[in-house]
Each structure stands twice: as structure tokens, then as C-alpha cells.
Write a structure and sequence with these properties.
By secondary structure, the protein is mostly beta strands. Helices cover 5% and strands 45% of the residues.
Amino acid sequence: MANDLNVVALVGRLTRESELRYSSGGMAICRFSIAVNRRKRTADNKWEDEANFFDCTMFGKSAESLNQYLEKGRQVSILGELRQNRWEQDGQARTRVEIAVNSLQLLSSPNGDRSEGRRTDGGAKPQGSYAPRPASNAPVNTPPVMDMGGPEQFDDDQIPF
């Protein structure tokens, strides 16, 4: 029984247009790369951003439907797991670690506008899929916003712990 954990959650910007291919079995495979900045302190005690680049892969119907929206510069949030690919090339053993994306949320447009985010859960059978807002002013199905109120709405007798 495995007690290991492999979970990745990142927010970053796409560094290039996504690439959509199909496996020999007909499964859609979408590959893209994101840059995630982290703050670090320099030798002269100043803060600067350092970019880290991560290769990502999404599979199935989510890969097909999202491919058209994954444009360079767009900010996304991803949830997934790390996968290590191994192969041999010219007699040399090669490895590559990438993120297998299970869920992706569009956070902004390619030009950086923080428009309404849209979420889609990856995998063979997506739980929900939201496309970016159409060019027209047609209504878009968006997830409901729930206001649960603050803790002051409950009496101490109503809280079970």
C-alpha cells in the first residue's frame, strides 16, 4: 500500500502557444509550458523575481477543448502531479519531469486582463467545463458565488465542536 503523495499546484503564465497532438490510440495530448516567478534575496540584500519554467501535459477531451484558449502570456492555475518520463536516445538514457495536469483554470486573458476565470477539471470525464467569455455580450454560465457569511452568524450552541 502506497503512502506517497504527488500533488502540484501552480499559478503562472504560458510561455508559448500550446501544442495539440493525438496518440496512436486517438487520445488528445496538449503540451504547454508555464513560467512561475518566485521572489529571492540577492547578495546585496535586495529582492528580485526569478522565473521557473515547467512543462505541462493535459490529456483527453479537456486537452482538446482547452487547447484553443492556451495562448502565450495567459495566466493559468493548474493542479496536477509530477511524472518522470524515461527513454533512450542515441544510446543515452534520458529523463524528463513534467506536470500531468488534472485541473486547469484560466485566470486572465493573454494581454494580462484579469477577466472572469474559467475552470475545467481534466481527465477522461470532466466534471465541469467553462469556456472564455464570447466576443458578444451573450450570457456565460459561471460558477455561482456563495456567501457563507462570517462566524458571527452562528451561536456557540450551534457549532458542533
